Amino acid sequence: ASPPPASPATGDICEGVTLRLDGVEPVSPVPLHLPDGGQRVWIVVENPSDRTLQLGPLNAVTFADGGGRALTPAGLPGSDAWFMPVRVPAHGSARVNVVFPAAPAPRIDRIEVRNTRPADAVGEVCTVQAFGLAG
């Protein structure tokens, strides 16, 4: 399967930044937080720009399925999942994961990452968006 087309972005600093899904794996149950287990979804962020970018924390990210319904990730303490802001090097990529409760794996079709900015600047902010990820 070919990757989806380039993601639209708002703000010049996000120009060309893409998001793509890169696999799913089961997560064992975690008492109180994920009693029925869940699914870990891997996401690759590619940054073609000359500047290192910092994506917003998980609470600045929206996930939706093909019908536009919001998908809520599980916030697991001590997890290696995306929680804090993520740095993506200039002309590089970062692979992050998000855990969603229960099975089957969510059919993520849209991701919007607000509060994305250059790692070396505070005032410039943009939003990275990706659509049509569910294929």
Task: Describe the protein's architecture and organization.
The chain has a single domain, classed as Immunoglobulin-like (Sandwich), CATH 2.60.40. 0% of the residues lie in helices and 41% in strands. It is built from no helices and 9 strands. The termini are close together. The N terminus is likely disordered.
User: Can you count the beta strands?
Assistant: 9
The biggest sheet, with number of strands, parallel, antiparallel or mixed sense and barrel status, is:
6 strands, antiparallel
Kindly report how far apart the N and C termini lie. Answer: 9 Å
- Regions with pLDDT < 50 over 5+ consecutive residues? 1-8
Count of helical regions: 0
Radius of gyration: 15 Å
Q: What class, by secondary structure content?
A: mainly beta
Write the CATH architecture name. Sandwich
Q: In CATH terms, what is the fold-level topology?
A: Immunoglobulin-like
